[in-house]
Amino acid sequence: MKSFVLAFAALILTAGVFAQTAAPATVKKADSYVKFKDVTHDFGKIKQGVPVTYSFAFSNITDKPVVIESATASCGCTTPVKPEAPIAKGKEDKITAGFNAAAAGPFNKTIYVKVAGVDQPLELKITGEVLKAEDYANFEKEKATKKG
Fold this sequence. Notes:
Elements: H1 2-19, E1 34-36, E2 40-47, E3 52-60, E4 68-73, E5 78-81, E6 92-99, E7 105-115, E8 122-131, H2 133-147
Parallel strand pairs: 2-8
Antiparallel strand pairs: 1-3, 3-6, 4-7, 5-6, 7-8
């Protein structure tokens, strides 16, 4: 009986220890440091083999300089360029996303932006449709006909 009571008491103490919940950790979010004017850009229909670029403008919304540690793309067809210097408080800069338009078809690419001191990267997206030269020429003709 003594060992049963001892085992039961140990079980209750153990359950009490494991039932304790840790205080929720403060999750730092990139959008608390930088504010992008746009986080998506649609190139629309573009001609195959003709690279395109778009600059995602952002501003530092903190009272300290912000460092963009990295800007990486979801595939090799997209080349992001980030600022190398820290961005001073209240100042603006940009991340330029280049897309090579090598393969025909629709595309949806993501650029992951890592801000120093923040665990989770911010995501920028570019979309559009790459048309073969002949299809793009027809698209341009159609567009001109609709205008005039």
